[in-house]
Design a protein that fits this description.
mainly alpha, 2 domains, 4 strands, 8% strand
Length: 197
C-alpha cells in the first residue's frame, strides 16, 4: 500500500507554474532579508514605519520596506492560490505517480546506519554536554549523555529490523551495540572537549 502519492506534470512543467514558484521563492527571500536586516531599533526621519514583533519588540523600517515586510507574508498565500489555479488550468497534463515499493535494506546500509546513526544523534548530546560543562555542572553534563546512548542503540536496532534477514546481520548484536556506544561516547566527548577547549 503506497504511503505517499505525488502528482507531476507530463512533459515539461508549464511556464506559468514555474513563474509563480520562482516569484514565491523571491517573495520569501525578500521578506526574510528585508525583515531581518533593514531595520533600526530607534525611529528616525528615514525609518518611520513601525512593526511590533512578539515580545513587544519594535522595529522601525523605511515606509516602503515596512509595508512590504508587513504585507509580503500574505503574498505567499496569494501565490499559493495562484499556483493552485495554474494546476487547475493545466489539469489535463497532471498525472498521479505512485512511489516505488520500498527495497529491503542490505548489509552495507546496516553498516552505514551503524556508523552514522550514533554520530549524528550524539552530536546534539555533545553540544548539550559541552554547554553544561561550561556552566560548571560536570555531573549534569555526564547525565545529559545517557539519553543519547539510548538513542544510538535504538538507531542500530531500527537499522537491524530493516535487514532482509535480521538473523544474519554483518555484525553480531552485541558488537553492533558496543560499536554504537563507542561511536556515541567519542562523538559526545569530542564535541564537549572542542567546545570547552
Amino acid at each position: 500500500m503506497p504511503t505517499s502519492v505525488r502528482y507531476v506534470f507530463t512533459g515539461k512543467t508549464p511556464w506559468p507554474f514555474l513563474a509563480v514558484g520562482y516569484t514565491a521563492l523571491a517573495n520569501f527571500l525578500a521578506v526574510w532579508v528585508l525583515g531581518g536586516w533593514c531595520y533600526t531599533l530607534v525611529p528616525d526621519a528615514v525609518h518611520s514605519f513601525v512593526i511590533r514583533y512578539r515580545g513587544g519588540v519594535l522595529r522601525y523600517y523605511r515606509p516602503r520596506v515596512g509595508l512590504y515586510v508587513e504585507y509580503g507574508f500574505w503574498g505567499h498565500f496569494v501565490l499559493l492560490a495562484l499556483a493552485g489555479f495554474v494546476v487547475w488550468c493545466y489539469r489535463d497534463q497532471v498525472r498521479r505517480v505512485d512511489p516505488p515499493p520500498p527495497r529491503p535494506g542490505s548489509g552495507g546500509d546496516f553498516l552505514i546506519a551503524l556508523a552514522l546513526s550514533p554520530i549524528l544523534l550524539s552530536a546534539w548530546g555533545g553540544f548539550a554536554a559541552g554547554i553544561l560543562w561550561r556552566e560548571g555542572a560536570p555531573g549534569w553534563a555526564a547525565a545529559s549523555a545517557l539519553p543519547f546512548f539510548a538513542l544510538s542503540i535504538l538507531g542500530v536496532e531500527h537499522a537491524r529490523s530493516k535487514l532482509p534477514d535480521p538473523r544474519h546481520p554483518p555484525l553480531s548484536p552485541w558488537r553492533s551495540r558496543g560499536l554504537a556506544l563507542l561511536l556515541s561516547a567519542a562523538t559526545i566527548a569530542g564535541i564537549a572537549f572542542w567546545m570547552n577547549g
